[in-house]
Amino acid sequence: MGSPRKDHAPFAIEVPFDNSETPQRRIWLNAYAIDRDEVSLGNYLAGVLRKPRALPPDLAQLEELKELAEFARPLTGSGMPPDHILATWPAFNVSWAEADTYCRSIWKRLPTEAEWEKADRGTKGRLFPWGKAAPDARRAIFGQDTRDANPLVAPVDGLKEGRSPYGLYHMAGNVAEWVQDWSGIDYYVSMPDRNPQGPANGRYKVVRGGSWRSNPAMLRAATRGGAPPEQRAPTLGFRCAKSGV
Fold first, then answer.
1. pLDDT of 74 over the 50 cut
2. For FRET with 18, which of 59, 77, 163, 209 sits at 20 to 30 Å CA-CA?
3. Cβ within 8 Å of residue 192, ≥6 positions away
4. Domain membership flag for residue 79
5. Does residue 74 fall inside a structural domain?
6. Cβ neighbours around 1 below 10 Å, total
7. Contact between residue 98 and residue 137 where contact means Cβ atoms under 8 Å apart
8. What whole-number distance in Å separates Cα of residue 205 and Cα of residue 74?
């Protein structure tokens, strides 16, 4: 878990990283399961609408969301109707608490940071989910931008060439993903060797994987990001996990 210091690197890391990824540690995890896909917008909205509470404000105007399907067609190459395309997009504009609540509503939870990273890079410490090759359009959605911040994403089960060693989709790019842990810049120095859960508290929750806006360096398996837990953004989504198998 993490990145080796440059002077001790077993292989060349050609992109910058910060000290929050060091020292690289060998970590043991109890058995767990993690979703193959990011939570889709269709499943998330269906789950929210089953509960007696309002939709998050950024997702409330479904008619406006339908317009976003025009951005999806070039990425999917399909002629599916807009509602169908949107249903397979990753959920976005979801706060940490909303992501946590959704996972718990289906008897799961957010993955820990260590669980997320293992699912991304396997046991061999891959640089990216697929290996050492630089990110490209066959493997990840990244480096996109729009004037009005509309997401430019692919369906949650798209881009098979970008899958992780365990077959997970979009562990790099598409939407960045909330995990369970609070962020701690020096946490890797003191974290336990078994089942680390992150610091007891903090200001930011950890975000992993990079998004459709990210540069290639942010798609590395070891890259750590963070955001205030109340933040919603078109670049933020999540996937769920559960203990045991």
1. no
2. 163
3. none
4. yes
5. yes
6. 20
7. no
8. 33
Residue 85 lies in a domain: yes
Express each pLDDT in 49-65 by its tens digit.
Answer: 676 555 566 565 554 45
Q: Which domain holds residue 130?
A: 6-243
Dmax over CA atoms of the chain, in Å, equals: 55
Cβ count near 214 (within 10 Å) = 23
Residues 6+ apart with CB under 8 A from 85: 69, 72, 73, 76, 78, 155
The C-alpha angle 13, 14, 16, rounded to 5 degrees, equals 85
- CA–CA separation, 55 vs 49, rounded Å? 7
pLDDT recorded at residue 56: 62
Two structure tokens written together for 22: 């060091």
Q: Check whether 206 has a pLDDT greater than 90.
A: yes
Tokens of 152: 């430019």
How far is the C-alpha of 192 from the C-alpha of 3, rounded, in Å?
A: 17
For the residues 173-196, what does the mean pLDDT come to? 94
Residue 75 confidence (pLDDT): 46
Output the domain CATH number for residue 16.
Answer: 3.90.1580.10
E strands along the chain, which residues?
Answer: 32-34, 176-182, 205-208, 224-227, 236-237, 241-243
- Provide the H-helix boundaries in 81-194: 82-88, 96-105, 113-121, 187-190
Structure tokens at 127: 């640089």
Among residues 183, 178, 182, the alpha carbon closest in space to that of 232 is found at: 178
Domain count, the chain: 1
Mean pLDDT of 184-198: 92
Neighbours of 84 (CB within 10 A): 15
